[in-house]
Amino acid sequence: MSFDAVNVTPHAYSYPLLIKQLLHSALAVSKDQEIVYRDSVRISYQEFRRRIGRLANALHAQGVGPGNTVAVMDWDSHRYLECFFAVPMMGAVLQTVNIRLSPEQILYTLNHARADIVLVNAEFIPMLAIIREQLETVKKFILISDDGSEMASFKVPFAGEYESLLAAQSADYDFPDFDENTRATTFYTTGTTGLPKGVYFSHRQLVLHTLAAATHLGSAPKQGRFHRDDVYMPITPMFHVHAWGLPYVATMLGVKQVYPGRYAPDNLAKYIRDEKVTFSHCVPTILHMLLSSEAARDVDFSNWKVIIGGSAFPKGMATMALARGIDAFAGYGMSETCPMLTIARVASDVDDDNLDQQADQRIRTGYPIPLVDLRTVDGNMIDTPHDGKTSGEIVVRAPWLTMGYLHNPAASDDLWAGSRLHTGDIGVIDGKGCLQVTDRLKDVIKTGGEWVSSLELENIISQHPAVSEVAVIGIKDDKWGERPLALVVLKEGCEATTDDIKGIVKNFAEDGQISRYAIPEQVRFVATLARTSVGKINKKAIREEIGS
User: From start to end of 8-68, where are the E strands?
Assistant: First the structure.
């Protein structure tokens, strides 16, 4: 069988999928729409485009060209959004630096990514000062300041201050066409196991992820819909997987955007109230922090939609969010997947007032978004049945998955063994195609000859009315191999005993919803749980602390 190639008219425009193409419709129809930074900056989309041009000219004047790496150390801001566009549109690579890593890890990521220039918020200069002499490739630094800090007050040889450099440049910059497979961004995993790994994405991948995410979220009839009249505010860091890719979606749609800077519950509540924010995304920790804050007590959340990701969405928290009128629902992905793979949705026949059924459907891992080929497989890479019961490792293909780890071919080969990206998660798929992650491969507890899901056990314990947060790990046991250990944070002013926690699990076991071996051997009540730099519960750190 032969296939004929499509004949291309010599003068036709091939339209490469470049990040700059995401701006066209927004600038055509939403040029006066606002982009807001905290209480200090309001710019229109038209001014945003001019600032992108000025930033590109400023970076070019500092020697940045195609292939160079520009690293950014900043809180979520309009400046970060400008870098999301200007840097890759020049043909350079944007490195979003995780400012919550240790100085040693930040040093490693800057050197490993071979950063050429660093844009740094004044708040992070003390950290930069610790590592500056050990930076191997960085040639220049640019100061970012919210409070008018002078460059001379820091012992860093700055090439200039961000706003001053932009003010001195023309807004006209002719962003060229180039190969859509050109690398656009680099960032690093949070490094809970070994050194952080660099993942990278091309223009083509980011554009396709943007289109697929917008299509999926925009196709919702009501629940979970993201549309052109929404007001968007990210509450996951822009340094982490491009804030889940939603700033690109929001910009393409031309919606009002609000960037909150450092996350503080009182400010987040204020922006949701005063700026009329309707769409966000965050990890469960942030949602818990916000809903538990005094500042949020009188805020009307009934128009707020929020994707919960990064770790499992506990049913207890989902119920609490629903009680405040929040349209909260789970999303799933990982650093290596750009990140969006699946989104939970509520079936149209579920009554709005049935909070129990609503919560059950909202905490599910969800349905694949367009172009995602997601499977669960056994150890021989054979698909497991879609019966909602048979578990397997989640493997995936999509056009926006990282092609490997930067400068790490061995780890890249492991990631893509069998020509599918291995997530390291296990899960089940039901007859309607809905995925449910049951655990990380490394977090499953093998006890009494059965596999017990730590995530399922956490979800059950979270439903106790006194429980604020919970983490479950396996600890060694001479008789059973492993036994579950539950670490529980209680709600302020609430009490519970070890027997109370064991009792709720026992009830689920007696109903046949979980193995009897899942009833925890021990329960420890703690004040806080260890977390990663992006707010996820850090079970590796917990295991090390417990000595399991």
Answer: 34-37, 41-44
Q: What percent of the chain has pLDDT over 90?
A: 79
In tens, the pLDDT along 261-286 reads: 999 999 999 999 999 999 999 999 89
Mean predicted confidence (pLDDT) in 493-513: 90
Q: Does residue 82 carry a catalytic annotation?
A: no
- 165 Cβ contact partners less than 8 Å away, ≥ 6 residues apart: 58, 61, 142, 159
pLDDT at 322: 97
Can you list the domains of the chain with their CATH numbers? 46-174+183-198 (3.40.50.980), 202-440 (3.40.50.12780), 450-546 (3.30.300.30)
User: Is 521 annotated as catalytic?
Assistant: no
pLDDT for residue 548 is more than 70 = no
> Rounded to an integer, what distance in angstroms lies between the CA atom of residue 447 and that of residue 428?
20
Range 370-394 average pLDDT: 94
- Helix/strand/coil for 357: helix
Q: Is 47 a catalytic residue?
A: no
- Selecting among 137, 140, 451, 540, the annotated active-site residue is 451
State residue 162's pLDDT score: 97
Q: Which of 69, 189, 210, 438 is catalytic?
A: 189
416 is annotated as an active-site residue: no
Q: Which element (helix H / strand E) includes 49?
A: helix 45-61
- CA dihedral (172, 175, 176, 180) in degrees, to 10, reads -170
CA 456 to chain centre: 22
- Note the pTM of the prediction, 2 decimals: 0.85
Q: Of these residues, 446, 476, 544, 545, which one is catalytic?
A: 446
